[in-house]
Amino acid sequence: MMATAVADPKRPELGTDESVVARVLAGERELYEVIVRRHNQRLYRAARAILRDESEVEDVMQEAYVQAFAHLSQFRAEARFSTWLTRIAVHAAFARRRHAQRQVPAEDSVVVTTPEHHTATRELVTLVEKAIHELPDSFREVLMLRSVEDMSVADTAAVLDIPEDTVKTRLFRARALLRDAIAERAEGATQSAFEFHAPRCNRVARAVMIAVVNQVSS
Asked: What's CA 1's distance to the chain center, in Å?
């Protein structure tokens, strides 16, 4: 059975993602939990940009982490590890969405704010999330990765498999679709939108590590 990974994935002595990956490949598989905890927020936002059904997002995240672990030795340093991992999650989310579109359409999920939001910003964050949620898919995907998650144009283009100029165009049009009243106030609120709080982070980390243990044991 794997030992419990360090509590704080940002501890300086752990080094970069690439150094942690090297240690995992060398046999310290318990350190994969560090990777999970470092990237839960980004993968959540990336998957949530594509999937409107909140209930499917954690499944996609876990699927992406387990798939990445299975192919960890194939990671090459041409791109950053975070980009490689996000790309896996995005592809998994796209696959899940395509499958859902072949089924009977479900009602749109309701955006629910979390207790962790401060009272003063709760309504604003809800408005921002609702406005983003209602954007066309291609615009929402770019906006979430660029503005909410603050990925670079190059990384967003690589993750979504589109040209950088397309990223810029879609981002411009996505922002234009947000109403002036929301757009004026969204600048300071987007970083708080679609947060992935500790209880959910812990749940995903536990589920991924159990799957990793089972994968190693099989």
From this structure: 28
Tokens of 176: 């234009």
pLDDT along the chain (218 residues), means of 10: 55 86 94 94 92 88 95 86 94 89 56 46 73 87 89 93 95 82 56 74 89 79
d(CA 191, CA 201): 17
* H helical segments located in the chain: 17-25, 32-50, 54-70, 81-101, 119-133, 137-143, 153-160, 164-177, 180-186, 198-217
**What type of residue is 117?**
H
Q: What span, in angstroms and rounded, lies between the C-alpha atoms of 140 and 49? A: 6
3-class SS letters over 136-163? CHHHHHHHHHHHHCCCCHHHHHHHHCCC
Q: What pTM did the predictor assign? A: 0.69
135 φ, ψ to 5°?
-65, 155
**166-173 LR contacts (CB < 8 Å, sep 24+):** 167/142, 170/138, 170/139, 170/142, 170/143, 171/139, 171/142, 171/143, 171/146, 171/147, 173/139
What count of residues does the chain have? 218
Residue with tokens 């470092």: 38
Handedness of CA 101, 166, 129, 49 (dihedral sign): positive
Cβ neighbour number for residue 6 with a 10 Å cutoff: 15
Q: Identify the residue whose tokens are 């990445």.
A: 68
